[in-house]
Design brief:
This protein has 384 residues and is of the alpha+beta class. It is 47% helix and 16% strand.
């Protein structure tokens, strides 16, 4: 079960030497630190089913960089293989029973989790950004199924793991987050990032959404039958209409620009770091990143951070994001078309991501999810 070599000075030195190839690195000591694993849902659900060490591990590291001694707290993220996550989710579907178990087994390798062990490393290695944590080393060893990210220990930050406290997200925080993610989206809008496209072979495209229509139906059926108080008849009918018209709305999505989206953009994976006296957004856990309309991340983010007292502010935040993205790209002057893209993105989010969330919620409840579902359906009802 244990892999003690992962925490040895030799292993860390190898990681860091590979990452900082122009510097002389000497790792002098490594000591354990406590770290909160609770926000990493996929790792937690998979760890109990794997024979390998999986999760986040805090490390107090003393090392020399070009002769200068540095004391640095780090986190080693040891990732499960995507195949393990695929099987874990298939087991959750089986526990839900009914037609969902059968349909999910048929499509289990097409729901976006097959390459999660490699995608996040690919992004950190090839798309370094001020929006992501500082990285000290990466390891991808398919011969031993070892996938490791050595990153900064996020301390002295604000709004870390704040998914249960949306009230802590002041309007100014929401605006800063949307402004920052607009910059990320603008970087890759209608562009092909320099990443291995094979790692995104199982992610949501128009064809993908059409092909998996039977699965979206069973995910909706499961949510409606298991949680009728959340998925009322009126609310369920909105997503049923989306499934019934999936060919038409997917065809319309083709006319909207795509970018590299985080696809898990919410307070479980974000915080603010203070840099030069200013709060700067930091976004981590990129294993679900995919290509979609930039509005897709905004749909998810606002569903998580807007509690019922602030649902009425959604239009304000969406418009703020549009203006930011238009300023950066010059492609979003048409407000009506942008809002249509937002609405169509919401269908995809509801059928796929929220459907998956509800499948897991059926077996292992997530306390934050009912609030997110209510916010989501408030969005759909206002747009209907």
């Amino acid at each position: 079960m244990t892999q003690p070599h992962l925490f040895s000075t030799n292993f860390l030195q190898t990681l860091m030497e590979t990452h900082f190839q122009e510097n002389k690195i000497l790792v002098k000591s490594v000591q354990p630190l406590d770290v909160d694993n609770s926000a990493s849902i996929l790792a937690l659900l998979t760890a109990g089913r794997s024979e390998r060490l999986i999760g986040h591990f805090g490390l107090a590291v003393i090392y020399e960089k070009d002769g200068l001694e540095i004391h640095q707290n780090m986190v080693m993220k040891v990732k499960p293989h995507g195949g393990e996550i695929v099987e874990m989710l298939n087991n959750l579907a089986s526990a839900c029973g009914g037609n969902l178990a059968k349909q999910y087994n048929e499509y289990k390798e097409l729901t976006g989790f097959k390459h999660t062990h490699a995608r996040e490393l690919e992004i950190y290695q090839k798309l370094p950004s001020t929006f992501t944590p500082e990285i000290f080393g990466l390891c991808s060893d398919s011969s031993t199924d070892t996938y490791v990210i050595l990153m900064e220990y996020l301390q002295d930050v604000s709004l870390l793991n704040s998914v249960m406290q949306p009230e802590l997200w002041a309007n100014s925080h929401i605006e800063k987050a949307l402004t920052a993610i607009a910059q990320w989206h603008a970087l890759f809008l209608d562009k092909q990032p320099p990443v291995n496209q094979q790692l995104w072979s199982d992610t949501a495209s128009e064809t993908h959404m059409l092909d998996l229509k039977p699965l979206w139906q069973e995910l909706l059926n499961n949510a409606a039958s298991s949680f009728p108080d959340l998925y009322t008849a009126e609310r369920t009918s909105l997503l049923q209409q989306a499934i019934n018209k999936i060919d038409a709305y997917q065809n319309e999505l083709k006319s909207h620009p795509k970018t590299l989206v985080h696809n898990d953009f919410n307070p479980r994976n974000t915080c603010f770091k203070t840099i030069d006296g200013k709060d700067e957004l930091c976004v981590y856990d990129w294993e679900l990143a995919t290509f979609h309309l930039p509005q897709y991340d905004v749909v998810e983010f606002l569903c998580f951070v807007l509690d019922e007292n602030r649902h009425h502010l959604r239009d304000h935040f969406v418009e703020l994001y549009r203006l930011q993205l238009h300023q950066l790209t010059g492609k979003y002057n048409d407000k009506a078309k942008f809002e249509k893209g937002f609405h169509l993105s919401a269908f995809d989010f509801g059928l796929h991501r929220l459907g998956m969330y509800m499948m897991a919620h059926t077996v292992s409840p997530y306390p934050f999810l009912p609030r997110v579902v209510r916010s989501y359906f408030d969005l759909l009802l206002r747009e209907a």
